[in-house]
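Hi team,

Filling in the usual template for the complex we talked about on Friday. All components are listed, including any nucleic acid strands or ligand strings, so the model treats them as one assembly.

SUBMITTER: L.P.
PURPOSE: interface mapping
COMPONENTS: two
RESIDUES: 405
SEQUENCES:
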Amino acid sequence: MALRISQIAKLIIGVWIASVIVSMFLVLPQYEGLGNAGRIMIMHVPTAWVSVLAFAVSALYSGLYLRRGRSSDDDKALAAAESGFLFTLLATITGMIFSQVVWGVYWNWDPRQTSIFVLLLIYAALFALRAAIDDPDRRRQLSAVYSLFAFVTVPFLFFIAPRITDSTLHPNCVFIQGSTCEGIVLQEGNIGLLGDRKVQLLAIDRQGDTITAEVNVSEPGLRDEALLQPTFNLAAGERDIAPEFPGLRFRLVLEEVDLDAGRVRLNIEAPGTGLLDNQRTLITFIASNIGFTALFIWMFQIRATLLGAQWALERREGALP
Amino acid sequence: MNPLFDVSMAMYVALIVALAVWFGIFFYLWRLDAQARQLRHRIETLPEQEIAPTSVATLRNVRTTSDVSRQPETDDLEESTSIH
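RESULT (copied from the run log):
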């Protein structure tokens, strides 16, 4: 009976994720500023979420192994770490595809990209450590301790590091509540940083109710410069024209104007802002998170079973004490 | 131009490719799962010898230290080894 339920659950995972894929391509609307490229978010964010979950499970079983000393706990810790590594790789690759579409390059060492790369290195080192130690008990103990320490870095690298810097092009404001998305306040002549772009407010012009900010935008390394002119409508009290950064899908927005003080608030509007306001997108996004979480649990079970079987066979063959 | 890359068709082509990749992964996982379950079942149920043959050596007529002083006889030195 349990086997039948398990088989049905696995079939549901298959159909569920297939439905998410169909919805991703056919049901979701295009996103303003992103076009069809924005659909990859339905895969990118859930894979990143599942990798955090997998590393947490790995740390949990590592702790249980240190407490109880059961080899099955070590198998589960390794299975979860391997799944987490795989999902992190998927998140990185889908992020790189998004990056190529939006930023024009696959990799530009954005804080988010750098932090996920460091995370991959940390867990790659765990597998290297395991491979380097022959004694099974010692291998399990050391890797359990390492896994616990590795997990300490996960919240920092996933959530804190990309948030403490304003200099990121990652659309944090879309998915991560509490990110710093307040833009920068500049007076005429001041220089600031939006994303990885240097911006300098050259002048503030007024024509009727329309305020125009003349902003000089420089690429990293000051390779290219461009003059952008975002506008603000005083009568409506809201932004008006939001020009795109050169070569990017990001827009420069004039959010607030203080004519008396000669100050304006400039912000970067990431593509996909307001993405989850759409009901169809939100449902597909949640469904994708659930589907990938279930997929992780299934993969985790298979890998843990195989590791347990491998250990049992080695023990019977006399390779292990 | 290849009609598969036509703008109106591109979305459907991408969908079919994504579904093909997913179903490939799904059936691979399904088979792996079944095999892992079978393997675990075999390990749990079969006797140890059927899983992995183990070499066993049996010694007879082993000389003790008290035997060292006397002259060895032919029978005492007989040894037999059996491998199972």
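MY TAKE: Residues 174-179 of chain A have pLDDT under 50 and may be disordered. Residues 279-316 of chain A form the longest helix (38 residues).

Thanks, L.
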